[in-house]
């Protein structure tokens, strides 16, 4: 049921709109431009920018003389006024990203995720590392807005619990959000990894193609972050974004779910490594399983280097993967009518030269594609730490970005 | 990019919120209850209800004495103050539904869609039938808010064009919206059929399970209407909701798209009829194609009657269809994390006794299902005319319902 409109929230919403405008204008904006772009009155815009300057979030830059009138002072984000820490818990690696208010990465760090099932130990390590990052950068704790943590689903988001994610043994119902908050003393927000990645894209890249898009996350596993009408789609229990069991190959191997040819079972790095091993393209001393993280990583790199030679055998493997991913993408585009798919994640950059063009061609020429507009297939502009950066952006987003839902009176 | 908040729209938004509250309370609401439920001040709520009464949309009913204070006057929707006409263009049948302001069907009508490709003739027929319905009900034209038309996708919604829907020969780029508006003199809104059906569900049933749901439309073809956070998901070009090419059976027949076992090719009525014919359960003089609409309709009914006997052969067909639909539903639930699937459409009611329980069981026990919450599998409370009713509700929705997007300043 809709609730009435919350007049008290209008000021905060408009403040978030203006901060968002200034944040997205690296060359600065004058007060007149802020008013024009926001659609607010000059007086309202001016009052809000004053508050933002007083709070240290925005600073006045150089004066711009454009005509006979009063010179215009450019407003810029004061990026070093606030910070957040994003953490990405992956079965293989824990990634940390310290972000400033502009969403720029000030520092980052990676550590191998312990394979022994010890959530309490992992959380203690995380808290220690967060403190160490802030100390190394000499950032006082009061300038930190909070910590965002991205974790594989399924999650119980309302309680802040990680449920039983695949490949993280011993992580059954772990209260990650509250435990990390207690260990660090910071407010913590928990988000599904693919949703965090989509938030990073929204926050860092504001191009016109970013209203309806899907973020294809290519890591140890795959997933899809969804953005509809410029807001992330989280779903009824905040677990949206699982695409692993979309069937894409009728004669594919039997998945753990009992169906054949599920995309999440076919296109992940350890499967590509297994196919390349079976074809004799690369070699290993013993069979490689998905749990052999280091071997998978090394052999995957070997394969992607070989694939650049475009020999028939590696090309067959690459085209198979491109076809499988494209079919899943077409199912998603048909369902949601998104017009852009952004690809990223820890394993993406290595295989992208071989895959991206093929996927672009296959998706846009697929006879099963329903929408009549072109589907843009793009690389993420963000690096391999996209989920950690997204987790940090999540804190920025919750603290600062305008959400129309905030305009409704809460129950 | 977000734009600022439109203060001028607040009044209209709050008016829509209050009208929505009164509409959803068939037993009436007092002014105090309206203020409490909307979260608005007593004065604001009272001013708005006064405007609604003056405009004839709301009427004052009996007075309620609940204590020593002033008796409370109950406010009720004046359902017969405004009307809309919903039209559903289907390859088989054109359905008309005259709705009052409460979304109740005042009158309806069905006509066979001409098989000859003649869009202009069909549009002229529609205009004629709309006038005839209004005349038969003695409804003056000035009480009609507009006409909503639901059509199969793909659509060019911005231009109001129907593109090349399957099974509607000759309907390549037909300006349906503007042509029908010209022929009737009413404003016309065009919507994809499955989205219209989802709007009908939102409008008519406001239960707690209606925030994140998918409407499975079972007609000559299948489709899925999506509601996320209580608003319909239309997508970048308003063509969201196509699920036909989700693969669900590895050894299924080859679809027109070249893949095997696409759900939209497997579970539609003419395929069930063909399977029942092949199994000797029912008989026809000649082979039945999807274009033999009358034969498919009659034989489908014959099969569904037989299927109630639960013999081994019909049970095998039914369980095959239930499995195929369930697998597609699981893909959609995993992707979007909806918690409810509502089933309806012209062919649904006949096969529902055989299918609904099986689908409920299969979806909720599927090893591929990711979210941990139960998935509610329900029948639509609306009849077989759901898309026509939804098209009418679309006009009500656009005219009356609160949308947070209306709070943003338009470009």
TrEMBL record, chains A, B:
Signal peptide: none annotated. It holds the Pfam family ROK. InterPro entries: ATPase_NBD, HTH_MarR-typ, ROK, WH-like_DNA-bd_sf, WH_DNA-bd_sf. It comes from the Bacteria. One of its GO terms (molecular function) is DNA-binding transcription factor activity. Residues 14-60 form the HTH marR-type domain. Gene3D superfamilies: 3.30.420.40, Winged helix-like DNA-binding domain superfamily/Winged helix DNA-binding domain (1.10.10.10). Transmembrane segments: none annotated. PANTHER family: BIFUNCTIONAL UDP-N-ACETYLGLUCOSAMINE 2-EPIMERASE_N-ACETYLMANNOSAMINE KINASE (PTHR18964:SF149), ROK (REPRESSOR, ORF, KINASE) FAMILY (PTHR18964). Belongs to the ROK (NagC/XylR) family. This is ROK family transcriptional regulator. It comes from Pseudoclavibacter terrae.
């Amino acid at each position: 049921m809709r609730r009435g409109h919350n007049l008290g929230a209008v000021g905060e919403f408009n403040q978030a709109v203006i901060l968002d405008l200034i944040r997205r204008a690296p060359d600065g904006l004058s007060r007149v431009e802020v008013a024009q772009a926001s659609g607010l009155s000059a007086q309202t815009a001016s009052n809000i920018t004053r508050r933002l300057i007083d709070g240290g979030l925005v600073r006045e830059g150089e004066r711009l003389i454009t005509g006979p009138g009063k010179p215009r002072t450019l407003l810029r984000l004061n990026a070093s006024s606030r910070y957040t820490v994003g953490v990405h818990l992956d079965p293989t690696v824990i990634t940390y990203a310290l972000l400033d208010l502009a969403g720029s990465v000030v520092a980052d760090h990676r550590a191998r995720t312990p394979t022994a099932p010890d959530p309490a130990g992992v959380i203690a390590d995380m808290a220690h590392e967060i403190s160490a990052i802030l100390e190394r950068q000499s950032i006082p704790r009061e300038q930190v807005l909070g910590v965002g943590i991205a974790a594989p689903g399924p999650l119980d988001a309302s309680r802040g619990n990680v449920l039983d994610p695949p490949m993280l043994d011993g992580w059954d119902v772990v209260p990650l959000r509250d435990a990390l908050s207690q260990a660090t003393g910071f407010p913590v927000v928990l988000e599904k990894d693919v949703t965090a990645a989509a938030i990073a894209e929204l926050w860092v890249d504001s191009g016109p193609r970013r209203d309806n898009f899907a973020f294809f996350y290519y890591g140890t596993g795959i997933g899809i972050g969804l953005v509809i009408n410029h807001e992330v789609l989280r779903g009824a229990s905040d677990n949206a974004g699982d695409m692993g069991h979309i069937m894409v190959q009728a004669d594919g191997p039997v998945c753990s779910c009992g169906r054949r040819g599920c995309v999440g079972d076919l296109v992940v790095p350890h499967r590509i490594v297994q196919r390349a091993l079976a074809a004799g393209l690369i070699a290993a001393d013993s069979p490689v399983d998905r749990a052999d993280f280091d071997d998978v990583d090394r052999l995957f790199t070997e394969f992607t280097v070989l694939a650049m030679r475009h020999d028939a055998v590696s090309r067959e493997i690459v085209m198979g993967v491109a076809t499988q991913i494209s079919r899943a993408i077409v199912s998603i585009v048909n369902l949601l009518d998104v017009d852009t798919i952004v690809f990223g994640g820890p394993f993406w950059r290595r295989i992208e030269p071989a895959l991206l063009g093929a996927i672009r061609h296959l998706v846009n020429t697929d006879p099963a594609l329903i929408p009549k507009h072109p589907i843009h297939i793009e690389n993420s502009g963000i690096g391999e730490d996209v989920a950690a950066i997204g987790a940090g952006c999540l804190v920025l987003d919750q603290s600062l970005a305008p959400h129309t839902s905030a305009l409704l009176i809460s129950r």
